[in-house]
Amino acid sequence: MMQLKNYFLIAMPQLDDPLFKQSVVYLCEHNDQGAMGIIINKPSDISVAEVCSRVNFMMAEPRYFSTQSVLAGGPTHLENGFILHPKTQYSFNHSYALDGDLMLSTSIDVLEAIGTEKAPEKFLVALGCASWSPQQLEQEIANNDWLVTKADQAILFDTPYPARWTKATESLGIKMENLMPYNGAC
Predict the structure, then answer these.
(1) What is the dihedral sign for C-alpha 146, 30, 47, 72?
(2) pTM of the model
(3) Do the beta carbons of residue 124 and residue 71 sit within 8 Å?
């Protein structure tokens, strides 16, 4: 089995599940126990500044975060927050190396650092995640529900949320409008 950690899953046009329609998922983990990822292009109506204020942290520059939305990271573990960010010179509790210099943090101390010099330069905050049981993701890929490509930090951190599905697809040299919505014989 190919390990897909640090890959994007790009929803195919026929994937009509409302949670995953036109989604891009960053895979944080993939092994024979299953897979876990974060949807990176579905903003919620909550801002990072609101989350920080809800956990009673004083931010140094709250206006900096006024437009950044918390992502709806997926349908499982909705009570948990996940922060994707490049490594920093500061260590955070409950931070896990994903690939290269990318980290997944799940502790409040990262939120406390936001707005200070300790904050990661770039980050995504998500509530919830997507998870798959053993062989479930492989079956969905075989069913033509997902395209798979190596993750790209420019898409992850620098591309506006609404453009991520298109940009991730274009990174494969594909335009979604050129794809047939269903596989099989004509």
Answers:
(1) positive
(2) 0.89
(3) yes
- Tokens 């640090």 belong to residue: 6
What does each of the 186 residues of the chain score in pLDDT, given as a tens digit? 578 999 999 999 999 899 999 999 999 999 999 999 999 999 999 888 777 776 655 544 543 555 689 999 999 999 899 999 998 888 888 889 888 789 999 988 887 787 778 888 899 999 999 999 999 999 999 999 999 999 999 999 999 999 999 999 999 998 877 766 555 544
Residue holding tokens 């395209």? 147
Burial of 21 (0-12, 13-18, 19+ CB in 10 A): middle
Tally Cβ neighbours within 10 Å of residue 6: 16
List CB contacts of 129: < 8 A, sequence separation 6 or more: 28, 36, 37, 38, 73, 74, 76, 77, 80, 82
* Token pair of 142 as six digits: 């075989």
Pairing mode, strands 69-72 and 124-132: parallel
**Residue 101 phi/psi, 5° resolution?**
-105, 15
Among 20, 11, 147, which residue's Cα sits nearest to residue 72? 20
Token pair belonging to 48: 């990072």
